[in-house]
Amino acid sequence: MTEIQDKPDTSDRTEARLAVAVHVEAELLRLGLQAMLPGLATVERAEQFTHPAALERALADNGFHVLILSSANSAAGSPSRLRHTQPGLRTLVLLDPADAESDAALARLPADGYLLREELTAAALDRALRQLAADEMPMPLRLGRQLLSHAGESAHVLPARTVRLTAREHEVLAHLVAGLSNKQIARHLRISEHGVKRLVSSVLLKLGVANRTAAVVAAIKLGLID
Asked: Where is the signal peptide (predicted)?
């Protein structure tokens, strides 16, 4: 385990700063993240972990907000499931080119956000972390189009499954399709962010998915949205 030095707070922004855990396999990728993360205004501290057991202990004890994984590490097993047991933990997966082109690979890599390794820059990483902090789902445009296109193509061959959403849940789903954050949805519906989180969780549970993009894809396949 190598600790990345904390970055001094020289920003005037009042937004929350994030504790970031990193678990990636490729050495060059680790070094790149080690160089980039301390320079991001949104990062309070970051630590790298090479062993899953050490990562699990740290996530349980140290209150991390974001877990960054490579697609190889995410597919390997337990780290990608930790977000289900750690409240508030967001998972960002750095996709290899081959995985980005494979629907089967993406199905094995549930996450709260994705970045393409070949497009990884400090600016892209900073933007993705800010989106995760705002309860949004960062995803490259071409990857989102690919997932939605394939979902639409396969919708007519899938067996129908009844999903009963309340009127409020339908409203929330529509806002998820539009890419709104929890704060924006709360403003539109004139309810609290806590209420929105509860509704989003209910929608994900009823659709049987783990994140917002998967919810949109599932809703297309099930004919809940156009």
From this structure: none
- Coil, strand or helix at 118: helix
Looking at the structure, do residues 168 and 115 belong to the same domain, yes or no?
no
Cα–Cα distance measured from residue 208 to residue 168, given in angstroms and rounded to the nearest whole number: 18
Q: What is the DSSP string of 46-95?
A: EEE-SSHHHHHHHHHHS--SEEEEEHHHHHTSGGGGGGGTSTT-EEEEEE
Nearest Cα neighbor of 69 from 103, 115, 106 is: 115
Q: What is the mean pLDDT of residues 9-21?
A: 64
pTM of the predicted model as reported, rounded to 2 decimal places: 0.64
Specify the pLDDT at position 156: 45
Tell me how far the alpha carbon of residue 89 is from its chain's centroid: 9
Q: What is the 3-state secondary structure (H, E, C) of 158-189?
A: CCCCCCCCCHHHHHHHHHHHCCCCHHHHHHHH
Total Cβ atoms within 10 A of residue 78: 10
> 120: domain CATH number?
3.40.50.2300
d(CA 113, CA 138): 5
Closest CA relative to residue 160, chosen from 218, 110, 87, 120: 218
In a domain, 173, yes or no: yes
- Alpha carbons within 13 angstroms on the beta-carbon side of residue 27 total 0
| The last residue of a domain, from among 122, 139, 156 | 139
